[in-house]
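Retro notes - structure team

What went well: the batch runner handled both jobs without manual restarts.
What didn't: labels got mixed up in the shared folder, which is why I'm recording both outputs here explicitly, each with its sequence directly above its tokens.

Job 1
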Amino acid sequence: MLDKLPGFIVDKETQLLPFLLEKYANKGRNKVKSMLTRGQIKVGNRVVTRHDHPLIPGDRVSVLNTGSVQQRELMAGVKMMYEDDDIIVIDKPPGLLSIATEEEKERTAFRILNDYVRENNPKSRVFIVHRLDRETSGVMLFAKSETVKQRLQDNWKELILERSYVVLVEGQVKEEQGTIKNWLKESSTKTMFVSRPGDGVVAVTHYQVIEKSPLYSLLAVQLETGRKNQIRVHMQSIGHSVVGDRRYGGKRSPIDRLGLHARILAFTHPVTGETLRFETAIPAKFRSLVAGKKA
């Protein structure tokens, strides 16, 4: 375990990894790189994981203690992708709720991030902007004030530039690409279903095949609308339920999780106007299953 390390003020233009290697020459390249990967490095108030992050004179680089709230929660699989004064972006692991339910109030992405921001300021908090299902992994955006949350939600369609998922489904999808458009409605048991035109809400999903085998297909999916369980019910509607999704017709669960990952989120920053894009890797288990390897 690393000791609590001091911060440093940058005195010349450079990149983050070379700067850290110079400051911690006795620790070795792999150890320093792992500090970045684990989200231990902050530049100013932002957690930075990119090795080539540019530094300019006056930047303050500090290292979080592995015993901090953030580090304890990173052990549970939460990865910090970006932070500034207004927003936080994380890579959420499967199995973690976005926000509390009657059954689970403690271990949620919301609670983890609230604890993290309150470490520096007890009055700070985060705000949910959108949700991912418990068993869905991937990129998730939080606001650090009510104002920013409202701005994001009120202007969601204009601010979101790209929202892409990778989906592992049962069976071989024949069409290389396609669009699913229909009406969705929620049942009394909180399950979404395809309803008749004009009854419920319109949902539009675009998909493209990345890889496929006789048993499974891996799809890149883009949402034109963001309805509850939209991808899951749409995949069921074309006869190719998401792997592991028993609620929406899935028959097999070979990877012990839902085959749904929020891979890309690009948006216009609600305060600065800057274009930000976050991309995560396709889960290795998804590719292995399509390739016929043991997941």
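Job 2
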Amino acid sequence: MDNAALVEGPASDIDPAQLHAALVQAFADYLIGPFDMPLAQWPHFLARQCIDLSLSRVILRDNDVLAFAFVAPRAAMGVWRLAAMGAVPAARGTGAAQRLLNDLIQRAAHAGMTAVELEVFAQNTRALRLYESHGFQALHDLHGYHAQPWSQAPLSLPSPTSGAFAPLALEEAYAWIAQAQLTGLNDLPLQVTPPVLAANPLQLQAWKLGRALLVFTLPDEVKVQILSLIDRNPAQHDAYQLALQLRSSFPERACFVHELQRSDVGGDALARAGFECQALHQLLMRRSIT
């Protein structure tokens, strides 16, 4: 492939169908399976990933999208998040990914950002080597958890030391998370924070107990999905009680968490509540810009 014929430009200038097709091709052999998303859901994907196409870039050859780097700005934190980066099979090995990554770091610095961040599966060694070679360092492991239906749920749960849990309006829950970010938890993955939660089309519920908050949804008839679990207390007593209450409230459903849960703000509580930590996990990585 003639690299001189490669042209870089804003993703906002590209037809959505082209961007969608490039994403599907690039992730056809993804570590956790192909990215099978219909074109009709493309706007929802952008919203849930908080992607700004004007900040995102593509590499073109003869008007065909060969590679892309989608950016989700976290302006309040002074961070740009690399929401997704990939290349179609024909463009792999051309240096397109390195070119886009270097460009992202340079533009973030020019925009006054203090860091660039991303999530990558720890088992994706090729991508991990690329990011490490560009100065990204792992901040946290992000685990997924799964619990089978609670066929023998206890008749009563231990009394929480922080009082009874309380349902919380989503606006209050989002404000609580935002405050937590401002007062110490400034490196939560974007997906467990208000911008992404608010873009979720499903009906969400929030519970609060003491210093812990749980946001979850019922995506179908048989599962419960935890979208955000945060405990400000390192002991995670309140998160543990919320996890038990969730399983007890829906004993006929399996419960799961995607690979976005930090162990130190809720993951350890899930494990104590009978959730199995999944081996496949992500790393939250960040590169400082000086």
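One thing worth noting from job 2: The longest strand covers residues 64-74.
We'll revisit the folder naming next retro.
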